[in-house]
């Protein structure tokens, strides 16, 4: 079992990578802001300013509170070191499924947090630019939101120097900004008390304040605040859409849009129940109990008064993403009626989101990393029980049986796809990986594109499927494998191709405009075609693969929510297929009803 977890960690070097070491040169770049003078470093034609504070430290009585803008002059900020990460939730504690308690205790200890450079005073941004940029350059801005299941990740993970160097070489210069935001129980603690306190979705509010910081300050670095593209992967990609949907789609600040385009890599809208739903209360009560605040009259005040390590351990006492519950997340954005007014799928259907040009795509084997911890499942009946208990507890057993039956009990049909009987590390591994990948990523992307094409048919969108790691043992083209390609960490055809399309999109809001030597990428609504990124040659692919397996069930699976999905379907899908999409989307909102099933 432990070997599976080790494999998951090994396959995500991008999430835990050490920061790039810069070769500093004399004459450090300096930028004067209204509240600070920021000193950076320069190397190989790229200026880097890392760890610039954009909010007051969310510590003490500001823990579990919306972020506050900086109100005092900070003097000189040396933005040349490694920025502190927000508190991390790297392993799952208090579980009998994976024996990681010792590792968790070490990771959550003061020594462990210091070693990973993590702590509460973490609300900073990184800015990287071509060294030739000046305050009058007005360059397009790429705003990065990292992934990590809303549990781990930081701006330390990726250095954009190579991407910026490529942008200059192609005559498509950009400025890059990455934002740190609160995670886990620090940024997404749910519950009735949180809702009443007005402190829900703090991580999203951190991101929004980071965007406002860009609007106020990026011009001083040479960026154009009217030309911002928001970009994210995994939870960061989900966050990109959430930024589009915040406040019912209002993305203006001081009367101007905060962004004009979006790139979503592996994640779009995630259906979710309200922040005060039963599952949310289970999470909140578990954290409160483990924090020793169960008997407090004011439980939030008690949580805010705790020392950092005590609260970190309590916040990390619920199931994590690499545990048995997988992507049935404890912490994620949830509707609060104000910031995120409704479930994201409802906001899309209502057209309550910022309608900007967008690129949206997936990896071919999205589910593999999230299916390594369920090795006790060996039969079809156990697969049905797993999905009904952990994911679809509002559905009947017959409904889940019908859904599971569309995925043959045959390793050759599972993920990593197209690998025959190979890579099946336990009897139901490839089957579970196929279901989790399809329902969590492929299905939501298709529904998202279907609905946005109906609601805003004139707003362009492009979609892709990445297959460049085809044949990688156990994992395939796994979740997050796109990061090294997009950031140029591998000098190969996929990296060159992705960067060419993305840089054109950031500059012109069209991935084809100015892109040389690549096939034309059609808009998704024009025939529902995907650009298939491969190792040596890109092709076009109909966005209908596995539609029979995913969506062939009869109308016994229709719910009120899915009926809405069936209105005016695009020609690529039948009414029955759209209804099945809606059923699965509705099921994904629900979670385990009590802590015994959580653990």
From TrEMBL:
Keyword entries, A-Z: Glycoprotein, Hydrolase, Lipid metabolism, Secreted, Signal
The organism of origin for this protein: Cryomyces minteri
Cellular component terms (Gene Ontology): extracellular region
SUPFAM superfamilies: alpha/beta-Hydrolases
Family the UniProt entry places it in: Belongs to the type-B carboxylesterase/lipase family.
Xref: Pfam families: COesterase
Record has Membrane as a keyword: no
Gene Ontology molecular-function annotations: hydrolase activity
Entry EC number(s): 3.1.1.-
Main localization (coarse): secreted
GO biological-process terms attached to the record: lipid metabolic process
Position of the signal peptide: 1-17
Name the UniProt record assigns to this protein: Carboxylic ester hydrolase
Record PANTHER family: CARBOXYLESTERASE
Carboxylesterase type B domain span: 28-529
Annotated compartments: Secreted
């Amino acid at each position: 079992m432990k070997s599976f977890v080790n494999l998951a960690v090994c396959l995500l070097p991008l999430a835990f990578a050490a920061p790039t070491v810069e070769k500093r040169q004399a004459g450090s770049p300096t930028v004067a802001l209204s509240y600070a003078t920021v000193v950076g470093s320069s190397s190989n034609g790229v200026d880097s300013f890392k760890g610039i504070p954009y909010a007051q430290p969310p510590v003490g009585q500001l823990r579990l509170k919306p972020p506050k803008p900086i109100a005092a002059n900070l003097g000189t900020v040396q933005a040349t070191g490694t920025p502190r990460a927000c508190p991390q939730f790297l392993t799952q504690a208090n579980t009998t499924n994976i024996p990681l308690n010792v590792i968790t205790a070490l990771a959550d200890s003061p020594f462990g947090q210091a070693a990973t450079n993590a702590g509460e005073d973490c609300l900073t941004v990184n800015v990287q630019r071509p060294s030739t940029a000046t305050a009058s350059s007005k360059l397009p801005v790429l705003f990065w939101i990292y992934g990590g299941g809303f549990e781990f990740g930081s701006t330390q993970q990726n250095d954009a120097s190579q991407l910026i160097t490529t942008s200059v070489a192609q005559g498509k210069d950009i400025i890059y900004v990455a934002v740190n935001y609160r995670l886990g129980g620090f940024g997404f603690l749910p519950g009735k008390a949180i809702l009443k306190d007005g402190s829900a979705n703090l991580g999203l509010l951190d991101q929004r304040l980071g965007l406002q910081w860009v609007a106020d300050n990026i011009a001083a670095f040479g960026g154009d605040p009217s030309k911002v593209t928001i970009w994210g992967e995994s939870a960061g990609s989900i966050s990109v859409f959430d930024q589009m949907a915040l406040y019912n789609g209002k993305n203006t600040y001081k009367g101007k849009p905060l962004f004009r385009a979006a790139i979503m890599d592996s994640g779009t809208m995630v259906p979710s129940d309200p922040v005060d739903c039963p599952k949310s209360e289970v999470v909140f009560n578990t954290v409160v109990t483990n924090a020793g605040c169960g008997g407090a009259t004011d439980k939030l005040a008690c949580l805010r008064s705790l020392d950092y390590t005590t609260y970190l351990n309590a916040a990390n006492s619920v199931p994590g993403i690499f545990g048995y519950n997988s992507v049935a997340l404890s912490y994620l954005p949830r509707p609060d009626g104000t910031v995120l007014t409704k479930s994201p799928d409802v906001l899309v259907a209502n057209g309550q989101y910022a309608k900007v040009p967008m690129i949206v795509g997936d990896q071919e084997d999205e589910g593999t990393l999230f299916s390594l911890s369920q090795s006790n499942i060996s039969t079809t009946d156990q697969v049905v029980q797993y999905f009904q208990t952990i994911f679809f507890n509002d559905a009947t057993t017959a409904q889940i049986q019908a859904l599971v039956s569309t995925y043959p009990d045959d390793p050759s049909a599972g993920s990593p796809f197209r690998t025959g009987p190979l890579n099946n590390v336990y009897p139901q591994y490839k089957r579970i990986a196929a279901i989790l990948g399809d329902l969590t990523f492929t299905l939501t992307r298709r529904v998202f594109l279907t609905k946005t094409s109906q609601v805003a048919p004139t707003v362009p969108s492009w979609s892709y499927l990445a297959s460049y790691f085809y044949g990688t043992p156990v994992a395939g083209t796994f979740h997050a494998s796109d990061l090294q390609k997009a950031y140029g960490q591998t000098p190969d055809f996929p990296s060159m191709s992705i960067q060419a399309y993305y840089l054109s999109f950031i500059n012109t809001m069209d991935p084809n405009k100015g892109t040389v030597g690549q096939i034309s990428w059609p808009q998704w609504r024009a025939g529902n075609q995907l650009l298939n990124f491969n190792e040596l040659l890109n092709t076009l692919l109909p966005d209908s693969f596995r539609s029979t397996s995913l969506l062939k069930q009869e109308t016994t699976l229709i719910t009120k929510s899915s009926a809405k999905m069936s209105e005016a379907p695009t020609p690529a899908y039948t009414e029955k297929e759209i209804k099945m999409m809606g059923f699965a989307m509705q099921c994904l909102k629900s979670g385990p009803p009590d802590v015994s099933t959580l653990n």
